[in-house]
Design goal:
The complex is a heterodimer of chains A (252) and B (382).
Chain A (H helix, E strand, L loop, with lengths): L3 E10 L2 E11 L4 E5 L6 H9 L4 E10 L2 E2 L5 H7 L1 E4 L6 E5 H16 L6 H14 L10 E2 L5 H15 L3 E5 L7 H14 L5 E6 L12 E6 L2 E6 L1 H10 L2 H7 L2
Parallel strand pairs in A: 3-10, 3-11, 6-9, 9-10
Antiparallel strand pairs in A: 1-2, 1-4, 4-5, 7-8, 11-12
Helix pairs in contact in A: 5-6
Chain B lengths: L5 H6 L17 H10 L15 H8 L11 E2 L4 E5 L6 H7 L11 H8 L2 E7 L9 E4 L5 E8 L4 E7 L4 E8 L4 E8 L2 E13 L4 E8 L2 E12 L5 E10 L4 E10 L5 E10 L4 E10 L7 E10 L5 E10 L5 E9 L3 H9 L4 H14 L5 H6 L11
Parallel strand pairs in B: 3-5, 4-6, 5-7, 6-8, 7-9, 8-10, 9-11, 10-12, 11-13, 12-14, 13-15, 14-16, 15-17, 16-18
Antiparallel strand pairs in B: 1-4, 2-3
Helix pairs in contact in B: 6-7
The chains are: A alpha/beta (252), B alpha/beta (382).
């Protein structure tokens, strides 16, 4: 049974059709990479799956573990097991990272009928997690993403992913703007997260993250549709040849 | 001498009585009345009363006040509290009452003096960093005059509550003195007026935090005069207004000596049909080079009926200064809300969390958090 199923998805943003018929099936234990040039619709796909306002689904189906995501609010999609690591994580000044993470985890627990964790217990868990990921514990005291560097913001997304332990993690260009060290930390987090019951969808421009996190499938998104799928070697081809050869293949 | 500005007030209800000044009998009431007569009186719908009814403030001043003779509590170490006739206080009172707040642009402190039911002084003589002298100015629905003097090198902490009265505070911080002043303004259904004038001398510091929630009408006039080199002023605070509350804060920091610094930082959340008015002003005199002065006011409106009027002002006559100012009014950021919701935090809780964070940025004190309805930070960092 597939974890995430995207079928014939057509999406409009501000009256412009951005996605025209995307199909994607992600099974437990798999890592998928979605690649494509700027403007091909990668972020539209992730934002639509996460339930961002303004992304109008014209037709198509979106299911996570058989649940129809299109009927759910963003927080309900999160409870269903979806996680989106943002390309541009948002700053929430004055709310500490620790408080934010606890509120999120408690919301999930409440949804499952569990009681909230005590602060002591939660802090203990978080300390263990940040140590494992080589993050500076100071990180937890600061405002959410507030004056974080680009790399810190992306690490924070990985930390949230590990806290919430979703079924499907969509990572929207989590590798962009990272230096080599930060890239390795992020890759370590993803490898830490993955298991045979969950799945990861990496949206990326570049091959370099895929050296650390090897995908089972690589898809190329062009002009709002997936024009080619293959194994990890496709990413290497793209790195060498660019996207133009695919554009010619699918051109009008 | 009847100026054009007179008539609106004359038609208001303030009556001169030529009674002696009850709380400060050494002052000449006739002379004060004459000053009032000679002063260009505030006009409705013009700065600095553009958005707040001066008439209501004057009417309140002319209606009976609750009588009180309650003196503030204090922790006893190095602080003197007493009415203006108290030995060791009376000479200071004679020297400073009606002198510090003697502002030709604002007649309300003079009117307060004529109506005041209660007057007292707080004097700190001591410097003690381990047990700071601390005084609680209680809330009162009275007309009060307060003098605060921080002597040279002394320090003092003031916790002030306001509630529907007319209160004028005159404050002097002598060289090297330090004053931390917290002002809590809980809900009141009255018309409340507060005037605060602080003269800050060389190398002294004044830190003030003001936290306000709803009132029928609440006006805070704050004037801080930096009169000595190297002084530090830090004024911050916030408000959370709902229903039909009206809050007006007029804050001026006047740099009149070189090498001083000032910060003004206020955050406000305004909902329902409430109104928030903020006017923050930095004035830098010609003789105040090397001044470092910053002013920031941010507001979030949480309803269509909320109104925010904010104006930052800079008036600079000196060279070689560092200044910044900014004021914003907006709504909750949808992108922030979406971000929190994707983490499983429900929509309403997401909004609350963002507003709490916004106010938490200007709150450094438990009671401040509590009056603004912010949960004390539940999760401490490791």
């Amino acid at each position: 049974m597939s974890l995430l199923e995207v079928s014939d998805l057509h999406v409009k943003v501000a009256d412009r059709e951005i996605l025209n018929g995307v199909n994607l099936e992600v099974n437990p234990g798999e890592i998928h990479a979605i690649m494509g040039p700027n403007g091909s619709g990668k972020s539209t796909l992730t934002n639509t799956i996460a339930g961002q306002e303004g992304y109008i689904v014209e037709t198509g189906d979106l299911r996570l573990n058989r649940t129809n995501l299109l009927e759910l609010e963003p927080e309900e999609r999160s409870y269903a097991g979806l996680f989106l690591a943002f390309q541009y994580p948002v700053e929430i000044p004055g709310v500490t990272n620790m408080e934010f993470l606890k509120t999120a985890v408690d919301s999930h627990r409440k949804q499952r009928g569990d009681t909230a964790l005590s602060s002591v217990e939660f802090i203990k868990n978080m300390r263990a997690l940040v140590t494992k990921l080589d993050f500076n514990p100071e990180f937890l005291k600061r405002g959410v993403n507030e004056s974080f560097s680009g790399g810190e913001k992306k690490r924070n997304e990985i930390l949230q992913m590990l806290c919430l332990d979703p079924k499907v993690a969509l990572l929207d260009e989590t590798d962009s703007g990272l230096d080599i060290d930060a890239l390795q930390v992020v890759a370590k987090g993803i490898n830490e997260f993955r298991n045979s019951n969950n799945a990861v969808v990496l949206v990326t421009h570049y091959q370099r993250l895929l050296n650390h996190v090897v995908p089972d499938y690589v898809h190329v998104l062009l002009n709002g549709t997936i024009v080619k799928s293959g194994d990890a070697s496709l990413a290497l081809d793209l790195e060498r040849k660019g996207y133009a050869w695919l554009e010619q293949d699918t051109g009008p | 001498m009847v100026g054009a500005g007179h008539r609106p007030l004359a038609e208001a209800v303030f009556h001169m009585t030529s009674q002696p000044v009850k709380i400060a009998p050494w002052l000449d009431a006739k002379q004060i009345e004459q000053t009032i007569e000679n002063t260009r009186l505030p006009q409705q719908r013009k700065d600095p009363w553009k958005y707040t009814s001066v008439k209501q403030v004057l009417q309140r001043l002319d209606s009976p006040f609750e009588k009180t003779d309650q003196l503030p509590n204090h922790n006893g170490s190095g602080v003197l509290v007493g009415d203006f006739g108290t030995p060791m206080i009376s000479s200071l009172a004679r020297k400073y009452v009606n002198q510090i707040a003697n502002n030709s642009n604002n007649v309300l402190p003079s009117l307060n003096l004529l109506r005041a039911q209660h007057g007292y002084a707080i004097v700190s003589n001591e410097s003690n960093d381990s047990v700071r002298p601390a005084v609680q100015i209680p809330a009162s629905d009275s007309c009060e005059r307060i003098l605060i003097v921080v002597q040279e090198q002394a320090n003092l902490e003031i916790m002030e509550h306001t509630s529907g009265g007319n209160r004028v505070i005159e404050c002097l911080i002598l060289p090297g003195g330090q004053l931390v002043h917290r002002r809590i303004q809980p809900t009141t259904t009255h018309v409340e007026y507060n005037s605060l004038t602080v003269n800050v001398m060389e190398n002294s510091s004044y830190q003030m935090m003001q936290y306000s929630v709803g009132a029928q009408l609440r006006r805070n006039d704050i004037v801080i005069n930096i009169e000595g080199e190297g002084a530090t002023v830090d004024v911050s605070g916030g408000w959370k207004l709902s229903d039909i509350s009206h809050l007006d804060t007029q804050l001026a920091v006047n740099h009149r000596a070189k090498g001083s610094t000032s910060q003004q930082k206020f955050h406000g959340v305004v909902g329902d049909s409430a109104r928030a008015v903020f006017n923050g002003r930095i004035y830098i005199a010609r003789n105040a080079p090397k001044t470092d002065a910053h002013l920031q006011n941010k507001n979030i409106a949480t309803s269509d009926g909320a109104a925010i009027f904010t104006k930052p002002e800079l008036e600079i006559y000196a060279d070689d200064v560092v200044c910044s100012h900014g004021a914003t009014s907006g709504q909750l950021d949808e992108q922030q809300i979406f971000y929190l919701r994707t983490r499983g935090i429900p929509d309403d809780r997401s909004r609350e969390l963002i507003l709490e964070g916004f106010l938490a940025e200007i709150v450094e004190h438990e009671e401040g958090a509590s009056v603004l309805g912010i949960q004390p930070r539940k999760v401490d960092a490791p």
